[in-house]
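Posting here for the record, re: coenzyme A.
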Amino acid sequence: MIIRLLHAEDAQAYKKLRLSALQECPSAFSASYEDEVDLSIDEVAARIQPAADGSVYVLGVFHIDDLAGFVAIIHPPRAKLRHNVELAGMYVDPSCRRHGLGRGLLGAAIDHVRSIDGVRQIKLGVNATNMAAKTLYQSMGFERFGVEPDALNIDGRFYDEEHYMLRLNSGG
Ligand SMILES: CC(C)(COP(=O)(O)OP(=O)(O)OC[C@H]1O[C@@H](n2cnc3c(N)ncnc32)[C@H](O)[C@@H]1OP(=O)(O)O)[C@@H](O)C(=O)NCCC(=O)NCCS
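Prediction output follows.
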């Protein structure tokens, strides 16, 4: 597998995979398919291109030559929050699951964050019903620190969101 930061030229492949993610797993994302289906390639390119201020990157994992998964790395620009990083929107194509791509992608994201000066902790949120993702995060050292009741409303069904954190300065 190849894991690297995505750039504007990956926008077409990213849009295709991102839209299938939103259709396949609506409960795993706060965005909906309808929110993103009409985005132009230029708008998608602007979203995935590493931000000039270092606040957002998207890491992609490739199976052979095809984009097979991604995760966003969000580093808040505000001084009081810069010791935190958030991971969001992690996804692996169903045809590639259970082959270590998710673990590889998460490990690469953690390594990338460790290389950013001053970051102490990585946070993420996950639907409380998402056993696959929760098992993966826990196996990589993330610990649950809270639950937000009814965080997501999908067609009248409410889902709790669990909040996880990996403390980088505690051997995690
Ligand atoms: C969660 C997800 C990214 C995992 O990707 P993956 O490539 O299948 O993960 P891996 O093959 O690297 O598995 C790593 C570990 O995660 C856990 N895991 C993965 N899928 C699992 C499943 N269906 N049930 C239980 N544990 C699972 C296991 O501990 C696994 O290790 P093992 O294979 O040694 O047992 C993938 O299932 C996915 O994209 N799901 C839909 C979107 C989603 O839920 N995103 C997360 C949003 S917070």
